[in-house]
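Can anyone check this?
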Amino acid sequence: MTSTMENTRAEQSGATREVHVAVIGSGFAGLGMAIQLRKQGIEDFVVLERGDDVGGTWRDNSYPGAACDVQSNLYSFSFAPNPDWPRTYSEQPEIFAYLRGIADRYELRDKHVFGAEVTAATWDDAARRWDVETTAGAFRAKVLVSGAGALADPSYPDIPGIETFAGTVMHTARWDHEHDLAGERVAVIGTGASAIQVVPAIQPRVGSIAVYQRTPPWVIPRGDRPTTPFERALYRRFPAVQKAVRGALYAGREFLVLGMAKNRRLLAPVQKLARTHLERQVRDPQLRAAVTPDYTIGCKRILISNDWYPAVSAPNAEVVTAGIAEIRPHSVVTRDGVERPTDTLVLATGFHVTDLPIAHRITGRDGRTLAQVWDEGMVTNRGSAVAGFPNLFLLVGPNVGVGHTSMVYMIESQVAYVGEALRAMAVEGLATLETTPAAQEAYRELIAQRSAGTVWLGGGCGSWYLDRHGHNTTLWPDFTFLFRRLTRELDRENYTGTPERETAGVAA
């Protein structure tokens, strides 16, 4: 095993470090891939992490109130359950601690290079290698696996005058914990998953809070509670009980697919639950009208919260629906001409999802980047491989996202699929493995076929699930167990490979 000291010497010398596999990112996807490599006996790998610790999204999103909207027993690795979750829905610090514990438990830290943001990854067709440039040095890898997920790079709004604002501006994914909001006039832009968590967390201590809403979300009750000492002891002594609970949670969430992807009328009970929740918590008719969605539930992400509506109903809170015209040095001006004095802007404006930033940095065989290849829409084979990019595998890529269940389930499916690809390369002695354009096009058609008639395309809303062409390039539009079945084995017939003997004598 290459030691951290040896890694540091290589980086300081400016030498290019050669590895069998380079993994980008160390969130759930990157850590899961690293564990899979170890499981397959592959030790010659490195995890390139731009941050100073593992954790990915759960390291970066530390804003007040940050938590998961999937139950803890399901939002964790199936092979590494945690019997000591303090709540049924865990908050950011607990999930971050879980991931750090995973890195320690599987002894992965020595495989990491921290502070290594990937600035470019270019395929060298003669050498059959990926040349990877990072802020911590250069690497050359036979196989490149990107675990840079969709919730990695914040999206900043293009609002006239925002660059002139004289107060504090912070994105929820880049929270400034040194800044004291006590007594301040705060503007929160956005009403998505981050906003409904951060607003209730900061509303009691700010002077005033204006929430700038473009589209109201559907919100259902959050069935969260502390776990009991008895539960934790039971899970520790009888792991099968926790596994059974996980299975029940998974099955229950899969029922939502029936309404989202099969028959939208089946979502009526869920929408009724959300409407009842709203009516019980919002008494003011004017506010109630402002926060009532006009689209089918599930068309946009369903949010869960018990304190969102009470927070925006508070005397020091206001929901603004007029739309922002401009931002001035000390205020926000809406299209109806109203100017609201503001000390701090909180941008709860989400992430680059359908235009993944990492795609601009990965260049394939023909000299085009992934972003250029995907200009008309992201397309892959099984969300994992792209024609023209040999030995590149994507985790949490296009059409792997889910709006109803745990992303970790999908990540484990993909990690196993990539593992099968690596196994095929080893068994067959392949220098390269690349999916075919035909397989990629067939998969695009499969996604389009299964997306037709779903709530995401016909629910009456626009969402970050869809790209600028109106295509679903984000979500897996069916039951997740079908995705697992599809990725259980490598579809070898959809790949071409170059044997090592054909590249004999080529510098590696």
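Reply from J.R.: I decoded it. The chain has 15 helices and 20 strands.
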